[in-house]
From TrEMBL:
Protein topology in the membrane: Multi-pass membrane protein
TM spans (from-to): 21-44, 50-70, 91-110, 130-151, 172-190, 196-216, 245-265, 297-317, 338-364, 376-395, 402-422, 428-447, 468-490, 496-518
Keyword Transmembrane: yes
Keyword Cell membrane on entry: yes
Source organism superkingdom: Bacteria
Keywords from the UniProt entry: Cell membrane, Membrane, Transmembrane, Transmembrane helix
Localization of this protein: Cell membrane
Protein name, entry field: O-antigen/teichoic acid export membrane protein
Entry-linked Pfam families: Polysacc_synt
Amino acid sequence: MSDSKLLRGTFILTLGTYISRILGMIYLFPFSALVGTVGGALFGYGYVQYTIYLSIATAGVPMAVSKFVSKYNAIGDYHTSRRMFRSGMKLMLLTGFLAFVFLYSAAPIIAKATLGSNNLENSLEDVVMVMRMVSVALLIVPMMSLMRGFFQGHQSMGPTAVSQVIEQVVRIVFLLASTYIVIKVLGGSIATAVGFATFAAFVGALGGLAVLLWYWKKRKPHLDALLEQSVTPTRISTVTMFKELFTYALPFVFVGLAIPLYQFVDQFTFNKAMIAAGQKEVAESMYGIVQTYVPKLVMIPVSLATAFGLTLVPTITSSYMNKDYHVLQKQIDQTYQTIIFLVLPAVIGLFVLAYPAYGFFFGVEAVEAGGHILRVYAPIALLFSFFTVNAAILQGINKQKYAVISLGFGLIVKIVCNMPFIMLFHEVGSILATGLGYFVSIAYTFYMIKKHGRYEHRTLMKRAMLMIIFAVVMGVSVKATQYVMSFFFMYEEGRLQAAVITLIGTAIGGVIYFVIAYRSELLQKVMGNRITNIIQRKILRKKPQSS
């Protein structure tokens, strides 16, 4: 495959993934207006379980299938690739069915452990119903994920990208429409509306599967033609084939489970700890804010930064395999600098504008609690980003087992600290325990990257100090802007006022940060000449610098 076609495919897949993620964030804003914080908690109870069981059912197989198929296609053994597809589909059908049966059957036990009491605002029956509604999607999504991996193994990224977007669009349309109809038209309960909202995962999966089946029908003649050109199939047993597959898969599944596993710990401890701390009346409202709403805002800069940072990982792999440690040092440095450069100002911006930002996106009804939680949660974005990138770097230098070990260390810290922290600090105790767990994981992965990648952080520390200074200057400017606007707008007065403060503050802060970074040449050093050339050509109308 030509480099241009490969780059185009990668771009299509990345674009599809991030359109899907952005849609997955945006829908929560109108959804929160319909169901409130308690409804958000109920939605989170079901969705955290679904994410965990889906990860177990798929076990990282889609990405592993992509790697497996690509490997055997490269030697012309298309028969083994197709055999893996057939066997993998049967496996995904079985594991998906088992995950569905287990979650559906265990829902009453999980619901009881989740609530910590039968007398919270959401009843035991409501939680059981929501978990069972979302469990149906487990019958389809694993098979759909494997089909995506098979197409990607053939260097065909379009089916994955298009099916992801269609799945998300169908899910969101059904979710919002059903929630609105149940509450506003039929006068139904919030629990019923949330049940249909979680069932939207199944409806969306049907949409995504329909797209993949259409692509399969369209591409099958070409795939069959490849079979006819195949070399003699590799002599490999089904057991050996799956053993190789899971060798590829396990690092993907453990690292991908990081955030859901932390939420899993919260689901079984948060309400109990809040009740023990005398916060029973607000336990579920706070859970909805901490677990369902605020993380979506925090993940926006994380997704953007890791998208930029992870593009460097393939080159890291190449440098490590060639034992070119000087180039490897520069590549890891650039990856880290990109993360700090993009996420740090977003963290400070969210910290300063926490209250109006929460009011803008989720309404002002719970703005004081939501703003306080967002302010504490904002710095966790930097930890999320570093954990994701460190895990990818360790995979790039073939030391992925240390990423799994680091996740284990972090989870132990989270489990040990979560209930004591919540009892001491109430709802933000959960966030502090998460932050401490991720900090331990990151410290361990930094050490392993330094040891096995021969990485030195001197240049990073110098650049990071400069970025911190620029971000603080930006934060002070945003705070001053917010103070001036407070004479005309108060975020407590309504979502429109909160929107004005948030948007103006964000715009001014962003301009100040990037102007300082551009003038100091930090932008060029971190992002390269391409970005600064675009600024000079498109914005400043100057002749760009030579690369």
